[in-house]
Amino acid sequence: MAKIVGIVTTARESVxxxxxxxxxxxxxxxxxxxxxLEKVLxxxxxxxxxxxxxxxxxx
Length: 59
Prior knowledge:
It contains 1 helix and 4 strands. The chain is of the alpha+beta class. InterPro entries: YpzH.
């Protein structure tokens, strides 16, 4: 079963919920933080839209 373990966004006001939320300062930071978390957490990152990535654990 897949589980959302984190959210990375540049638009804090557009997200909520129980997963940790990481705020990026711009699009470049959004991509950098998302891909770093993907590697550190051994998860997959998915772009929902230009301001929002989700980190998903499929283990």
